[in-house]
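Q: We require from you a single protein entry containing the residue sequence and its fold in token form, and nothing else.
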Amino acid sequence: MQRALAIALAVAATAACRLDPLVEDQPGASGSILPSGAPVPSVTDSSELLNQITLNDSLDTKALAMTGGVIVRGTGFTSVAGVGTQVPFWAFGEAERAPAPIYILGRGDPTTPMFQDIMKDHPPLVDAVPGDGEYEPVHTIYRVQVTDKYAGEKITTTRALADAVDIGLVQAPVAIKQFVNWPIVRPGLRLEVGGSVEPIAPTPVYGHGHMVDSFPLGGALGTQPNPFGLLPTSQVSFVRAQLEPTYNTARPIFQASVPTAAPSMNPNYTPVSVVVNVDLMPLVPSSSITKDSDLFMRSVMTGAITATTDKVLQFTVTGTTLDLQIQFEEGKP
């Protein structure tokens, strides 16, 4: 959460130490900023970056080969109006509570709904991709207001962003205290969304000076408030019946449910799920578990487990945290 602030501080320090002024404060003074119309290389042009993302995006290469490069949905269960209901979801591997920044350029006051992003003309910028130590699939949003000096230049690295702030093309990034599940993936994939819609193409973003592929998830309801910096978590249960050898990770039971309205001051959904392994009582089939309340009683205030049902023999809250995104609406990411 401090990386955008670090950019602004670095810019200020650089300006303070500079002995010679920039020539008329023109963008050309920065070798990191590309002019409007300049090509941005694809990640496929860098074998090192391509391999890094491919090896670390948490997607199964063999499974993708079988699906023709389509990230398919799994099927889990959650509660809808008190009834256990099947829900599709996408899995993007492990996640931490500290989100990675994503910078979105636009016009207008970044702290208000009047801010208009220019993502169609200038993709968002990330400073970490899979394989980087600070990468996370869930991102905290920073808005970057362009100034009257901005004329379509391309800011494809955080160094370029710092230079753009320095020479007045953009204002310093503003944290709007919101997060979104926006994983970066290897190039050439598509995302299964169901319905009558064909698998959708990825959204390009800038990362490490290249064009990389990504999938923003959840739509309008997927952008959630994050007033405390660290991401909120829910729990996901993997159950095992008496004679089953392993916990069934292909059939998650979500504590989280699909949001039915936009959040207010606090988040009403998070894809960051702490894994709970649950052993069922003898003679209780795993197919009988279709909602979180089949397993646990929880605190109304905190959501913490206060007791188990008579279907549970024992459970363990693990240290594993996964990015499991429930699909909110059929046919949409």
In short: DSSP finds five helices and 19 strands in the chain. The first strand starts at residue 70 and ends at 71. The radius of gyration is 22 Å.
